[in-house]
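User: Can you model how zinc ion sits in this protein?
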Amino acid sequence: MRLRRVVFDLLVYESVDELEQEDHILMNEAVKARKNAYSPYSKFNVGAAVLLDNGEIVIGNNQENASYPSGLCAERVAIFYASAKFPGVGIKTIAINATSKNFVVNKPAAPCGNCRQSISEYEIKQRRPISIIMSGETGEVLKCNSVSDILPLAFNSTFLG
Ligand SMILES: [Zn+2]
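Assistant: Here's the modeled complex, given as structure tokens:
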């Protein structure tokens, strides 16, 4: 037996104002998208904005349903919409922002496991990392350079033969 340590770089910003211009613009789009989230059940509003290689920004927000699992997270709404509208165009970055009607979201909202897996699919397909920027209502902002950083040992198509 041997130990294999998995480490990754996580960039920590004091606020969105510290982000580089391109990332700041993308986060602003995620914030705008978040305001249109349909979240009558969780009251947790999430917006996502995807920057593509062609310069287009595609947005998404969480869409809930009375039959709870039928809803979809903001990240997957955005990335699936990007793939539907711009098939084959590479994805550079995803920005995520979250607020709640019930409490102050004072830490960055990271994508759930299902969204990490979905983003991973496109990262593997394009053979290039997808950066993820995460923010809440207040507090620091985090950026990782690849979804594989936050989903190590991801399931992928090589397991399917
Ligand atoms: Zn999710």
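A couple of observations from the model: The mean pLDDT is 97. The chain is about 25% helix and 25% strand.
User: Helpful, thanks.
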